[in-house]
Amino acid sequence: MSAPVLHADNLARHYRVSRGLFASELTLKAVDGVSFTLDAGKTLAVVGESGCGKSTLARLVTMIEPPTSGSLAIDGIDVATAGGAARRRLRSDVQIVFQNPYGSLNPRQKIGDVLAEPLIINTDTPADER
Predict the structure, then answer these.
(1) Residues 71 and 82 in one domain
(2) Is 35 exposed, middle or buried (0-12, 13-18, 19+ CB in 10 A)?
(3) Looking at CB atoms within 10 Å, which of 10, 45, 65, 113 has the fewest?
(4) pLDDT (tens digit, 9 = 90+) per residue, 82-106?
(5) Are residues 80 and 55 in the same domain?
(6) How does strand 69-74 pair with strand 6-17?
């Protein structure tokens, strides 16, 4: 079996937030402890409510921002230790597709039905396992 094209292990991105001149700083945990593996030929969709860290996770995976902790490997190459030329090549291999939920979600369908549809069409997965 080949190595995954994308592997994230315990990724985190925390921001320090000032509360004013005399108050102590807070730590905002935008992404905390996210792990996943994406194999060749597969697609990863990150879905969640507003403010849950989807865009921050995308910024970590595309190397726009460094993670506070955790590791990220693209095509088996550890992003943290990759040199300049390797990082440029890796950046060109990763992309984000933002989707307009108003144009892509049918308000007359339940979200569970929308998410199950590809499994119904493309697999023989029983209903109780979907």
Answers:
(1) yes
(2) exposed
(3) 45
(4) 888 888 888 888 878 777 767 767 7
(5) yes
(6) antiparallel
